[in-house]
Amino acid sequence: MSLRNRLTLQFGLLASLVLGVASIAIYFLSADYRKDEFSQRLISRGENMAKLLIQIEEVDQNLLNIIECDNPVRLPEEQILIFNFRDSLIYSSEGLDIEMPTKDFLNQVRLDGSIQISKEKRESEAFLFTDRYDRFVVIVSGIDVYGRRKIQNLGQVLAIVLGLGMIAFFLVGRVYAERALSPIKQLVAEIAGISISNLNKRANEGNGSDELAKLAISFNAMLARLEAAFVVQRNFIANASHEMRTPLTAISGQLEVILLKQRSEEEYKVAIESVLQDIHKLNKLANRLLMLAQTGTDAPEANFRQVRIDDIIWEVRADLKKMKPDYCIEVDLDETITDLEELQVLGSDILLKALILNLMENGCKYSDDHVVKVSLGVRANTIQLTFTDNGIGISEADLKQIFDPFFRSNSIRNRDGHGIGLSLVKRICDLHKGTIKVSSVLGKGSTFTVSLPIKKV
Known about the structure:
Elements: H1 3-55, H2 61-69, E1 79-83, E2 89-92, H3 103-112, E3 114-119, E4 122-130, E5 135-143, H4 145-192, H5 211-258, H6 265-294, E6 305-308, H7 309-323, E7 328-333, E8 344-347, H8 349-365, E9 371-379, E10 382-389, H9 396-399, H10 421-431, E11 435-441, E12 445-453
Helix pairs in contact: 1-4, 5-6, 7-8, 8-10
């Protein structure tokens, strides 16, 4: 069932239900009112008859019957019985077959004060009438012909109104559903027109405040993220292909040169070492590309655990010294740190090692003295890592782009690198809910400050 038909059906059913409940309530309340009103009329008739018969000495049963014969207020098929304290009948209406009550019933009326009885269409009121000298039981019954006819007519009118109302509700509901779903149909048409070739297109956000506008805003935000992801993917593929083509071209070129003629053992050794260096570079590039791709999703968070930052610093320092013995890494721990819990973060030790290694290696690589100073401190429930070098520095223009994948400043084009390290560092910081800031002066060096939230046990 389509949404339009479903809304039409729901609107029609709910409106019909409300109208039906209201009609039933009106009918039964009117029926109760008719019953109460007729009961009051019965009691009023009985009291008047009892007063005429008992309180006026000149009036007896025969005279009262003559008076009541053509009384315009006489009820349809009216029956009146009056009994004295000895249960003797002192008055009864004429012209109708009257069913005499039992003594037990009369005693019950005297005990309760009044009893209401309904038998088929006939309704009766039995009540106690008190005089100065005696107590009488008055039983009045009749048929409310006009009241029942009005209630019957009211029921027919309400049934017709309910039927016509249901038809009207379904017709109005269909128009209402059509108009209500019109913006959705327009939004669906706009979304259907968006494909991978025009991700820059956006859906109409309407007034910007209702639910459909919020849906369009959310969809446009998703499109913006998808567009950015596709742009990053295209740039990643293009740059990665370019970066990997360079060492592969160098390797294949060297091997082709070697195969051009017979060479000496020393020449083969030199060529193999050169090829091996290019292979190492290619392997390092592939590892960084793989890690960059892995940090592009939130999946690593599932493997996060408590990690000691100081342990990682010393471990990374030892590994870097093995690879580059001429690199000097000075580590300075804040003396105010006394609680080991202050050095723990929730994260991935592999990714945090990659972050620290990249910043350590860059500090040494781009400094003429190959020295980087690493400071570890705690500030406002965060661990702060500072990497300071005395290298060539970064220009003001390049500072805005250094965290972009594959970006390399013109001042370091002559040095080894692929422009992946800092972008990887930025993604690892974001993944660990941390931040990274950089300050630099050309010719004097750079300072990178990483802040990571503390994970207390």
